[in-house]
Design brief:
The complex is a heterodimer. By secondary structure, chain A is mostly helical. Chain A has a single domain (44-367), classed as Cytochrome-c3 Hydrogenase, chain B (Orthogonal Bundle), CATH 1.10.645. Chain A has helices at residues 48-52, 60-65, 72-87, 93-122, 127-147, 167-191, 195-201, 209-214, 220-224, 231-234, 255-279, 332-336, 340-344, 349-357, 363-367, and strands spanning 8-12, 24-30, 33-40, 156-157, 160-161, 300-306, 311-317, 326-330. A 3-stranded antiparallel beta sheet of chain A has the order 1-2-3. In chain A, strands 6-7-8 form a 3-stranded antiparallel beta sheet. In chain A, α3 packs antiparallel against α4 (93-122) and α4 (93-122) packs antiparallel against α5. The termini of chain A are far apart. Chain B is an alpha/beta fold. Chain B has a domain at 3-92: Beta Polymerase, domain 2, CATH 3.30.460.80. Chain B contains 4 helices and 8 strands. In chain B, the strands form 2 sheets. In chain B, strands 1, 2, 3, 4, 5 and 6 form a 6-stranded mixed beta sheet that branches. Chain B has a two-stranded parallel ribbon with strand order 7-8. The longest helix of chain B has 12 residues, at 105-116. Chain B is globular. Chain B starts with a strand and ends in a 25-residue tail after the last strand.
Chain lengths: 368, 146
Protein backbone atom coordinates (compact mmCIF):
# COMPACT_ATOMS: atom_id res chain seq x y z
CA UNK A 1 0.00 0.00 0.00
CA UNK A 2 1.43 3.37 -0.92
CA UNK A 3 0.76 6.58 0.92
CA UNK A 4 -0.10 9.50 -1.28
CA UNK A 5 1.68 12.50 0.25
CA UNK A 6 0.86 15.23 -2.16
CA UNK A 7 1.72 18.80 -1.09
CA UNK A 8 -1.26 21.01 -0.36
CA UNK A 9 -1.21 24.79 -0.58
CA UNK A 10 -3.54 26.51 1.86
CA UNK A 11 -4.47 30.14 1.66
CA UNK A 12 -4.54 31.64 5.10
CA UNK A 13 -6.07 35.11 5.51
CA UNK A 14 -6.46 38.01 4.79
CA UNK A 15 -9.86 37.50 6.41
CA UNK A 16 -9.52 34.93 9.15
CA UNK A 17 -10.74 35.04 12.77
CA UNK A 18 -7.33 34.24 14.21
CA UNK A 19 -5.34 36.44 11.87
CA UNK A 20 -3.97 39.64 13.34
CA UNK A 21 -5.42 42.08 10.85
CA UNK A 22 -5.46 41.65 7.10
CA UNK A 23 -2.31 39.61 6.64
CA UNK A 24 -2.20 36.73 4.22
CA UNK A 25 0.05 33.70 4.10
CA UNK A 26 0.23 31.00 1.47
CA UNK A 27 1.18 27.89 3.35
CA UNK A 28 2.39 24.71 1.65
CA UNK A 29 1.76 21.64 3.73
CA UNK A 30 3.03 18.10 3.67
CA UNK A 31 0.42 16.44 5.83
CA UNK A 32 0.54 18.55 8.97
CA UNK A 33 4.09 19.89 8.51
CA UNK A 34 4.78 23.24 6.94
CA UNK A 35 7.23 22.97 4.05
CA UNK A 36 6.89 26.47 2.66
CA UNK A 37 5.29 29.74 3.62
CA UNK A 38 4.91 32.90 1.65
CA UNK A 39 3.67 36.10 3.27
CA UNK A 40 1.52 38.38 1.10
CA UNK A 41 1.51 42.03 2.10
CA UNK A 42 -0.30 45.17 1.12
CA UNK A 43 -3.96 44.81 2.06
CA UNK A 44 -3.74 47.85 4.34
CA UNK A 45 -1.30 49.93 2.30
CA UNK A 46 -2.31 53.58 2.48
CA UNK A 47 0.83 55.23 1.18
CA UNK A 48 1.74 56.96 4.45
CA UNK A 49 5.22 57.86 3.18
CA UNK A 50 3.78 59.55 0.11
CA UNK A 51 1.08 61.34 2.13
CA UNK A 52 3.75 62.70 4.47
CA UNK A 53 5.45 64.45 1.56
CA UNK A 54 2.44 66.74 1.18
CA UNK A 55 1.78 67.64 4.80
CA UNK A 56 3.50 70.01 7.19
CA UNK A 57 5.73 68.59 9.90
CA UNK A 58 3.06 69.01 12.60
CA UNK A 59 0.28 67.50 10.47
CA UNK A 60 2.29 64.30 9.97
CA UNK A 61 1.90 63.49 13.69
CA UNK A 62 -1.68 62.43 12.92
CA UNK A 63 -0.46 60.03 10.23
CA UNK A 64 1.89 58.30 12.66
CA UNK A 65 -1.04 57.43 14.96
CA UNK A 66 -2.38 55.22 12.23
CA UNK A 67 0.77 53.15 11.78
CA UNK A 68 0.88 50.98 14.87
CA UNK A 69 -2.58 51.79 16.15
CA UNK A 70 -2.17 49.91 19.43
CA UNK A 71 0.92 52.00 20.31
CA UNK A 72 0.26 55.48 18.97
CA UNK A 73 2.28 57.21 21.70
CA UNK A 74 5.47 55.42 20.71
CA UNK A 75 4.91 56.33 17.06
CA UNK A 76 4.37 59.97 17.99
CA UNK A 77 7.56 59.90 20.02
CA UNK A 78 9.64 58.38 17.24
CA UNK A 79 8.40 60.89 14.70
CA UNK A 80 8.81 64.01 16.84
CA UNK A 81 12.31 62.83 17.84
CA UNK A 82 13.24 62.74 14.17
CA UNK A 83 11.86 66.25 13.59
CA UNK A 84 13.67 67.54 16.67
CA UNK A 85 16.93 66.01 15.45
CA UNK A 86 16.41 67.45 11.98
CA UNK A 87 15.65 71.00 13.18
CA UNK A 88 17.76 70.89 16.35
CA UNK A 89 14.84 71.61 18.70
CA UNK A 90 15.26 71.53 22.48
CA UNK A 91 12.63 69.76 24.59
CA UNK A 92 11.81 70.99 28.12
CA UNK A 93 12.66 68.55 30.90
CA UNK A 94 9.09 68.15 32.10
CA UNK A 95 7.96 67.25 28.59
CA UNK A 96 10.67 64.57 28.40
CA UNK A 97 9.44 62.98 31.62
CA UNK A 98 5.83 63.08 30.46
CA UNK A 99 6.90 61.49 27.18
CA UNK A 100 8.70 58.67 28.96
CA UNK A 101 5.72 58.05 31.27
CA UNK A 102 3.21 57.87 28.42
CA UNK A 103 5.54 55.83 26.21
CA UNK A 104 5.99 53.26 28.97
CA UNK A 105 2.24 53.18 29.66
CA UNK A 106 1.79 52.54 25.96
CA UNK A 107 4.35 49.75 26.09
CA UNK A 108 2.39 48.07 28.89
CA UNK A 109 -0.85 48.46 26.89
CA UNK A 110 0.73 47.02 23.76
CA UNK A 111 2.33 44.08 25.57
CA UNK A 112 -0.98 43.34 27.29
CA UNK A 113 -2.63 43.14 23.88
CA UNK A 114 0.14 40.88 22.58
CA UNK A 115 -0.14 38.55 25.58
CA UNK A 116 -3.92 38.48 25.54
CA UNK A 117 -4.15 37.63 21.87
CA UNK A 118 -1.40 35.04 22.14
CA UNK A 119 -3.58 33.19 24.63
CA UNK A 120 -6.61 33.71 22.46
CA UNK A 121 -4.65 32.03 19.68
CA UNK A 122 -3.86 29.15 21.99
CA UNK A 123 -7.56 28.55 22.45
CA UNK A 124 -8.04 30.24 25.83
CA UNK A 125 -11.09 32.14 24.67
CA UNK A 126 -12.18 35.12 26.67
CA UNK A 127 -10.84 35.07 30.20
CA UNK A 128 -7.11 35.94 29.84
CA UNK A 129 -7.85 38.38 27.02
CA UNK A 130 -10.41 40.17 29.18
CA UNK A 131 -7.91 40.37 32.05
CA UNK A 132 -5.51 42.12 29.65
CA UNK A 133 -8.17 44.38 28.20
CA UNK A 134 -9.35 45.44 31.64
CA UNK A 135 -5.89 46.84 32.42
CA UNK A 136 -5.42 48.31 28.95
CA UNK A 137 -8.74 50.09 29.33
CA UNK A 138 -7.40 51.97 32.37
CA UNK A 139 -4.41 53.14 30.32
CA UNK A 140 -6.70 54.31 27.52
CA UNK A 141 -8.78 56.22 30.08
CA UNK A 142 -5.63 57.99 31.23
CA UNK A 143 -4.80 58.91 27.64
CA UNK A 144 -8.32 60.23 27.26
CA UNK A 145 -7.74 62.51 30.24
CA UNK A 146 -4.46 63.65 28.71
CA UNK A 147 -5.54 64.48 25.20
CA UNK A 148 -9.17 63.57 24.65
CA UNK A 149 -8.45 60.60 22.40
CA UNK A 150 -8.05 56.94 23.24
CA UNK A 151 -6.39 55.34 20.22
CA UNK A 152 -5.30 57.96 17.70
CA UNK A 153 -3.70 60.23 20.25
CA UNK A 154 -1.51 62.81 18.46
CA UNK A 155 -0.39 63.92 21.91
CA UNK A 156 3.16 64.90 21.05
CA UNK A 157 4.41 67.88 19.12
CA UNK A 158 7.88 68.77 17.89
CA UNK A 159 9.36 70.54 20.91
CA UNK A 160 7.20 69.03 23.64
CA UNK A 161 3.71 67.70 24.21
CA UNK A 162 0.33 69.16 23.28
CA UNK A 163 -0.64 70.20 26.82
CA UNK A 164 0.42 69.76 30.41
CA UNK A 165 -1.13 66.88 32.36
CA UNK A 166 -4.54 67.65 33.90
CA UNK A 167 -4.66 67.13 37.67
CA UNK A 168 -6.95 64.10 37.42
CA UNK A 169 -4.27 62.30 35.38
CA UNK A 170 -1.95 61.91 38.36
CA UNK A 171 -4.74 60.45 40.48
CA UNK A 172 -5.60 57.95 37.77
CA UNK A 173 -1.94 57.05 37.29
CA UNK A 174 -1.48 56.59 41.02
CA UNK A 175 -4.39 54.16 41.37
CA UNK A 176 -3.29 52.30 38.22
CA UNK A 177 0.29 51.92 39.44
CA UNK A 178 -1.00 50.66 42.79
CA UNK A 179 -2.68 47.63 41.23
CA UNK A 180 -0.92 46.84 37.94
CA UNK A 181 1.88 44.78 39.53
CA UNK A 182 -0.60 42.47 41.19
CA UNK A 183 -2.70 42.29 38.05
CA UNK A 184 0.32 41.21 36.01
CA UNK A 185 1.18 38.59 38.64
CA UNK A 186 -2.40 37.35 38.48
CA UNK A 187 -2.22 37.14 34.69
CA UNK A 188 1.12 35.42 34.90
CA UNK A 189 -0.16 32.86 37.41
CA UNK A 190 -2.64 31.77 34.73
CA UNK A 191 0.00 31.37 32.06
CA UNK A 192 3.65 31.01 33.01
CA UNK A 193 3.42 27.66 34.78
CA UNK A 194 0.45 26.42 32.81
CA UNK A 195 1.02 22.94 31.43
CA UNK A 196 -0.97 23.53 28.24
CA UNK A 197 0.75 26.83 27.47
CA UNK A 198 4.18 25.32 28.09
CA UNK A 199 3.60 22.30 25.88
CA UNK A 200 2.23 24.45 23.08
CA UNK A 201 4.93 27.14 23.16
CA UNK A 202 8.16 25.56 24.43
CA UNK A 203 10.71 24.82 21.67
CA UNK A 204 8.45 26.14 18.93
CA UNK A 205 9.88 28.57 16.40
CA UNK A 206 13.35 28.84 17.92
CA UNK A 207 15.49 31.66 16.54
CA UNK A 208 19.22 31.77 17.19
CA UNK A 209 21.01 35.01 18.18
CA UNK A 210 23.02 35.23 14.92
CA UNK A 211 19.83 34.69 12.94
CA UNK A 212 17.86 37.47 14.59
CA UNK A 213 20.71 39.98 14.20
CA UNK A 214 21.17 39.04 10.57
CA UNK A 215 17.43 39.27 9.97
CA UNK A 216 17.23 42.84 11.35
CA UNK A 217 14.73 41.80 13.99
CA UNK A 218 14.26 44.15 16.91
CA UNK A 219 12.52 44.61 20.22
CA UNK A 220 11.24 41.59 22.18
CA UNK A 221 12.03 39.31 19.20
CA UNK A 222 15.71 40.20 19.49
CA UNK A 223 15.87 40.03 23.27
CA UNK A 224 14.00 36.72 23.50
CA UNK A 225 16.88 35.21 21.49
CA UNK A 226 19.45 36.31 24.10
CA UNK A 227 20.63 39.47 22.33
CA UNK A 228 20.91 42.17 24.98
CA UNK A 229 20.08 45.17 22.82
CA UNK A 230 17.65 47.91 23.73
CA UNK A 231 17.82 51.41 22.31
CA UNK A 232 16.80 52.86 25.65
CA UNK A 233 20.16 51.64 26.98
CA UNK A 234 22.26 51.47 23.81
CA UNK A 235 21.40 54.94 22.57
CA UNK A 236 19.40 56.68 25.32
CA UNK A 237 16.90 59.31 24.24
CA UNK A 238 14.70 61.62 26.35
CA UNK A 239 15.61 60.91 30.01
CA UNK A 240 16.30 57.17 29.88
CA UNK A 241 19.96 57.69 30.83
CA UNK A 242 18.85 59.00 34.25
CA UNK A 243 16.65 56.01 35.00
CA UNK A 244 17.49 52.67 36.49
CA UNK A 245 16.06 49.61 34.76
CA UNK A 246 17.15 46.23 33.39
CA UNK A 247 16.90 44.65 29.99
CA UNK A 248 15.42 41.18 30.38
CA UNK A 249 16.63 38.56 27.91
CA UNK A 250 15.25 35.16 27.02
CA UNK A 251 16.83 31.73 27.36
CA UNK A 252 16.16 29.78 24.17
CA UNK A 253 14.40 32.15 21.78
CA UNK A 254 11.22 30.12 21.42
CA UNK A 255 7.60 31.27 21.47
CA UNK A 256 7.41 30.98 25.24
CA UNK A 257 10.42 33.28 25.66
CA UNK A 258 8.82 35.84 23.43
CA UNK A 259 5.79 35.81 25.71
CA UNK A 260 7.84 35.87 28.92
CA UNK A 261 10.05 38.74 27.76
CA UNK A 262 6.96 40.91 27.33
CA UNK A 263 5.78 40.19 30.86
CA UNK A 264 9.24 41.04 32.21
CA UNK A 265 9.34 44.24 30.17
CA UNK A 266 6.01 45.33 31.62
CA UNK A 267 7.55 45.02 35.08
CA UNK A 268 10.53 47.14 33.97
CA UNK A 269 8.13 49.73 32.57
CA UNK A 270 6.44 49.95 35.97
CA UNK A 271 9.86 50.63 37.53
CA UNK A 272 10.53 53.37 34.95
CA UNK A 273 7.18 55.07 35.46
CA UNK A 274 7.58 55.07 39.25
CA UNK A 275 10.98 56.74 38.94
CA UNK A 276 9.67 59.34 36.51
CA UNK A 277 6.75 60.19 38.80
CA UNK A 278 9.15 60.89 41.66
CA UNK A 279 11.59 62.89 39.49
CA UNK A 280 9.18 65.05 37.48
CA UNK A 281 9.06 68.75 38.42
CA UNK A 282 6.74 71.59 37.36
CA UNK A 283 7.81 73.61 34.35
CA UNK A 284 7.02 74.28 30.71
CA UNK A 285 5.96 71.31 28.56
CA UNK A 286 6.46 72.85 25.15
CA UNK A 287 9.26 74.76 23.48
CA UNK A 288 7.55 78.07 22.62
CA UNK A 289 10.14 78.94 19.95
CA UNK A 290 8.87 76.20 17.64
CA UNK A 291 6.57 77.77 15.05
CA UNK A 292 3.30 76.16 13.99
CA UNK A 293 4.62 75.70 10.47
CA UNK A 294 8.13 74.36 10.80
CA UNK A 295 10.56 75.09 8.01
CA UNK A 296 13.34 72.54 8.42
CA UNK A 297 16.88 73.29 7.22
CA UNK A 298 18.18 71.43 4.17
CA UNK A 299 19.39 68.34 5.95
CA UNK A 300 18.49 64.79 6.85
CA UNK A 301 18.04 62.88 10.10
CA UNK A 302 17.36 59.35 11.27
CA UNK A 303 15.96 58.93 14.76
CA UNK A 304 14.65 55.77 16.35
CA UNK A 305 13.01 54.79 19.60
CA UNK A 306 12.49 51.43 21.26
CA UNK A 307 8.80 50.96 20.62
CA UNK A 308 6.82 48.05 22.06
CA UNK A 309 7.38 46.03 18.87
CA UNK A 310 10.99 47.04 18.34
CA UNK A 311 13.09 49.74 16.77
CA UNK A 312 10.77 52.31 15.24
CA UNK A 313 12.76 54.77 13.15
CA UNK A 314 12.00 57.73 10.95
CA UNK A 315 14.38 58.87 8.24
CA UNK A 316 13.50 62.44 7.22
CA UNK A 317 15.06 64.30 4.31
CA UNK A 318 14.33 68.00 4.02
CA UNK A 319 14.82 70.33 1.07
CA UNK A 320 14.18 73.45 3.16
CA UNK A 321 10.41 73.41 2.65
CA UNK A 322 7.50 73.10 5.06
CA UNK A 323 7.03 69.38 4.46
CA UNK A 324 9.64 66.63 4.33
CA UNK A 325 11.11 65.79 0.94
CA UNK A 326 11.16 62.13 1.93
CA UNK A 327 9.84 60.39 5.03
CA UNK A 328 10.89 56.78 5.36
CA UNK A 329 9.47 54.69 8.19
CA UNK A 330 11.48 51.81 9.58
CA UNK A 331 8.57 49.81 10.93
CA UNK A 332 9.48 47.09 13.45
CA UNK A 333 6.47 44.87 12.67
CA UNK A 334 7.44 44.80 9.00
CA UNK A 335 11.07 44.00 9.72
CA UNK A 336 10.19 41.34 12.30
CA UNK A 337 8.47 39.35 9.56
CA UNK A 338 11.72 38.79 7.66
CA UNK A 339 12.36 35.52 9.51
CA UNK A 340 8.81 34.17 9.25
CA UNK A 341 9.93 31.35 6.96
CA UNK A 342 12.76 30.30 9.29
CA UNK A 343 10.36 30.27 12.22
CA UNK A 344 7.55 28.38 10.57
CA UNK A 345 9.11 25.82 8.23
CA UNK A 346 9.30 22.42 9.86
CA UNK A 347 6.68 23.14 12.50
CA UNK A 348 3.15 21.77 12.55
CA UNK A 349 0.29 23.74 11.09
CA UNK A 350 -1.42 23.80 14.50
CA UNK A 351 1.47 25.78 15.95
CA UNK A 352 1.55 28.30 13.12
CA UNK A 353 -0.96 30.70 14.67
CA UNK A 354 0.73 30.80 18.06
CA UNK A 355 4.15 31.08 16.49
CA UNK A 356 3.00 33.87 14.24
CA UNK A 357 1.11 35.59 17.07
CA UNK A 358 4.27 35.75 19.16
CA UNK A 359 5.85 38.13 16.60
CA UNK A 360 3.15 40.63 17.60
CA UNK A 361 2.57 42.47 14.35
CA UNK A 362 0.16 45.31 13.67
CA UNK A 363 -0.90 45.57 10.07
CA UNK A 364 -1.11 49.34 10.03
CA UNK A 365 2.62 49.33 10.48
CA UNK A 366 3.45 46.40 8.22
CA UNK A 367 1.69 47.84 5.17
CA UNK A 368 1.92 51.53 6.12
CA UNK B 1 25.49 56.26 23.44
CA UNK B 2 25.83 54.87 19.93
CA UNK B 3 29.01 56.16 18.33
CA UNK B 4 28.57 57.71 14.92
CA UNK B 5 31.36 56.34 12.76
CA UNK B 6 33.93 58.78 11.39
CA UNK B 7 33.76 58.32 7.63
CA UNK B 8 37.46 59.21 7.14
CA UNK B 9 38.54 56.46 9.52
CA UNK B 10 36.17 53.94 7.91
CA UNK B 11 37.71 54.61 4.49
CA UNK B 12 41.22 54.08 5.89
CA UNK B 13 40.22 50.70 7.29
CA UNK B 14 39.14 49.41 3.89
CA UNK B 15 41.41 47.50 1.52
CA UNK B 16 42.83 49.69 -1.23
CA UNK B 17 40.72 48.33 -4.11
CA UNK B 18 37.56 49.24 -2.19
CA UNK B 19 38.61 52.55 -0.65
CA UNK B 20 39.30 53.83 -4.18
CA UNK B 21 35.62 53.34 -4.98
CA UNK B 22 34.39 55.39 -2.02
CA UNK B 23 34.28 59.14 -1.53
CA UNK B 24 32.94 61.63 0.97
CA UNK B 25 30.53 64.26 -0.24
CA UNK B 26 28.62 66.65 2.01
CA UNK B 27 29.84 64.73 5.09
CA UNK B 28 28.29 61.46 3.89
CA UNK B 29 30.07 58.31 2.83
CA UNK B 30 29.35 57.35 -0.79
CA UNK B 31 30.30 54.32 -2.80
CA UNK B 32 29.96 53.65 -6.51
CA UNK B 33 26.86 51.48 -7.06
CA UNK B 34 28.80 48.59 -8.65
CA UNK B 35 30.75 48.09 -5.43
CA UNK B 36 27.96 48.28 -2.88
CA UNK B 37 27.89 44.53 -2.28
CA UNK B 38 31.66 44.19 -1.85
CA UNK B 39 31.78 47.17 0.49
CA UNK B 40 28.90 45.90 2.64
CA UNK B 41 30.57 42.50 2.83
CA UNK B 42 33.80 44.13 3.96
CA UNK B 43 32.06 46.35 6.52
CA UNK B 44 30.21 43.36 7.91
CA UNK B 45 33.27 41.13 8.23
CA UNK B 46 36.12 43.53 8.93
CA UNK B 47 37.04 43.03 12.63
CA UNK B 48 37.47 46.79 13.01
CA UNK B 49 33.97 47.67 11.82
CA UNK B 50 31.69 44.62 12.31
CA UNK B 51 28.50 46.23 11.05
CA UNK B 52 26.40 43.16 11.70
CA UNK B 53 22.95 44.80 11.85
CA UNK B 54 21.17 46.41 8.95
CA UNK B 55 18.78 48.97 10.40
CA UNK B 56 17.15 50.16 7.24
CA UNK B 57 17.52 50.69 3.52
CA UNK B 58 15.84 53.77 2.08
CA UNK B 59 15.67 55.20 -1.40
CA UNK B 60 15.29 58.91 -2.12
CA UNK B 61 14.37 60.39 -5.48
CA UNK B 62 16.35 63.59 -6.18
CA UNK B 63 15.05 63.78 -9.78
CA UNK B 64 18.54 63.92 -11.41
CA UNK B 65 19.55 60.83 -9.48
CA UNK B 66 18.35 58.30 -6.93
CA UNK B 67 20.09 57.75 -3.65
CA UNK B 68 20.01 54.47 -1.76
CA UNK B 69 20.79 54.95 1.92
CA UNK B 70 21.96 52.08 4.12
CA UNK B 71 21.76 52.61 7.87
CA UNK B 72 24.13 50.12 9.45
CA UNK B 73 24.67 49.34 13.11
CA UNK B 74 27.23 47.33 14.95
CA UNK B 75 25.66 45.65 17.96
CA UNK B 76 29.17 44.59 19.00
CA UNK B 77 30.82 48.03 19.10
CA UNK B 78 27.60 50.03 19.45
CA UNK B 79 28.39 52.25 16.51
CA UNK B 80 26.41 53.34 13.50
CA UNK B 81 27.25 54.19 9.91
CA UNK B 82 25.31 55.71 7.04
CA UNK B 83 26.32 54.51 3.61
CA UNK B 84 24.97 55.98 0.40
CA UNK B 85 25.12 55.31 -3.29
CA UNK B 86 23.91 57.37 -6.24
CA UNK B 87 22.14 55.99 -9.29
CA UNK B 88 21.76 58.31 -12.26
CA UNK B 89 18.91 58.05 -14.76
CA UNK B 90 15.21 57.25 -14.52
CA UNK B 91 14.81 53.81 -16.09
CA UNK B 92 16.39 50.34 -15.87
CA UNK B 93 18.08 51.17 -12.58
CA UNK B 94 19.64 48.29 -10.76
CA UNK B 95 22.05 47.55 -7.96
CA UNK B 96 23.30 44.35 -6.41
CA UNK B 97 21.19 42.98 -3.55
CA UNK B 98 22.66 42.60 -0.06
CA UNK B 99 20.10 39.98 0.99
CA UNK B 100 22.76 37.26 1.06
CA UNK B 101 24.66 39.34 3.66
CA UNK B 102 21.70 40.46 5.75
CA UNK B 103 18.44 38.53 5.60
CA UNK B 104 16.73 41.68 6.87
CA UNK B 105 17.30 43.36 3.51
CA UNK B 106 14.94 41.03 1.66
CA UNK B 107 11.63 42.74 2.38
CA UNK B 108 13.06 46.26 2.26
CA UNK B 109 14.61 45.74 -1.16
CA UNK B 110 11.32 44.45 -2.46
CA UNK B 111 9.66 47.55 -1.05
CA UNK B 112 12.14 49.83 -2.82
CA UNK B 113 11.55 48.02 -6.11
CA UNK B 114 7.81 48.35 -5.60
CA UNK B 115 7.66 52.01 -4.61
CA UNK B 116 10.79 53.51 -6.18
CA UNK B 117 11.50 51.23 -9.12
CA UNK B 118 15.09 50.28 -8.38
CA UNK B 119 15.80 46.66 -9.25
CA UNK B 120 18.01 44.54 -7.00
CA UNK B 121 20.05 41.88 -8.79
CA UNK B 122 20.50 38.44 -7.23
CA UNK B 123 17.54 38.97 -4.93
CA UNK B 124 15.80 35.63 -4.14
CA UNK B 125 12.27 36.90 -4.73
CA UNK B 126 12.27 40.22 -6.57
CA UNK B 127 8.65 41.20 -7.03
CA UNK B 128 6.22 43.83 -5.83
CA UNK B 129 5.37 43.69 -2.15
CA UNK B 130 2.80 46.31 -1.12
CA UNK B 131 1.11 46.89 -4.47
CA UNK B 132 -0.21 44.24 -6.79
CA UNK B 133 1.50 42.77 -9.84
CA UNK B 134 0.40 44.78 -12.86
CA UNK B 135 0.33 48.12 -11.08
CA UNK B 136 1.75 50.78 -13.37
CA UNK B 137 4.56 52.99 -12.15
CA UNK B 138 6.33 53.41 -8.83
CA UNK B 139 4.37 55.75 -6.54
CA UNK B 140 7.14 57.18 -4.37
CA UNK B 141 8.89 58.67 -7.39
CA UNK B 142 8.51 62.41 -7.60
CA UNK B 143 7.18 62.28 -11.16
CA UNK B 144 4.43 59.76 -10.35
CA UNK B 145 0.96 61.12 -11.03
CA UNK B 146 -2.06 59.13 -9.77
Amino acid sequence: MSINNELVTVNFGPQHPSMHGVFRMRVTLDGESIVDIEPVFGYLHRGTEKLAEERTYVQIVTLTDRLDYVASMSNNLAYVSAVEKLCDIEVPKRASYIRVIVAELQRIASHLMATGFLLQDLGAFGTPLMYCFREREKILDMFETLCGARITLSYMRPGGVFQDTPDEFWGQLDSFMGTISDQISELESLITGNEIVLSRTRNIGILKPEEVINGSLSGPMLRASRVKWDLRKANPYEVYDELDFDIPIGATGDTFDRYLIRVKEMRESIKIINQCVSLIKPGPVRNEDVPLVIRAPENEAYAAVEGPKGELGFYLVSDGGISPYRCKIRAPSFMNLSLLREMAIGTKVGDLIVNFGSIDIVLGEVDR
Amino acid sequence: MTKIADNQIVIKLLPKDLSEQTYISDKHLYVKPEFIYELCKELQNNPETQYNYLKSISAVDYIEYFEIVYHLDSLINNSSLVLKTKLFGRSKLSVKSVTSLWKGAELQEREIWDLMGIYFEDHPNMKRILLWEGFEGHPLRKDFIK
